[in-house]
Task: structure prediction
Amino acid sequence: MVRLWETVLAGLEADPMSLASQLDWVAKYRLIEGYRDRHGLGWDDARLTAMDIQYHDLRPDKGLSGRVGLEQICTDAEIDRAMTEPPPDTRAYFRGRCLQRWGDSIVAANWDSLVFDIGGDPLRRVPMMEPMRGTEALVGRLIDECSSAAELLERLGS
Result:
């Protein structure tokens, strides 16, 4: 994976358009730019806006992203698993497990915090500024032991 990352960084430096089979944004740009050029359209043309939206349609028979020849770096099974199982080695584990267990009590979730509403109390924000502090090794047992979001917050001391 590190070699792939190095290849992409070198390609970005030399010629980003050479990465159309590896980077989604390059593939999308080439697709839309090609259509725009073939039909003599301006960037404000509604057809390009429609293509922009259709590109990310997740239905295989409707979306355009599946037609541009992007390399897939993980299997469909890995993708399916990632939709329900957070990676164990970053703060995504804490965020994902909290959403699984107490999703109804979470009113906001982003990269670096979760905001809980546990009833009569004010909303409670749990900061997650450090990417390596929410790992399974650090918080997995705590999450498993807590029976409610309120208990988790109490044990976290927030």
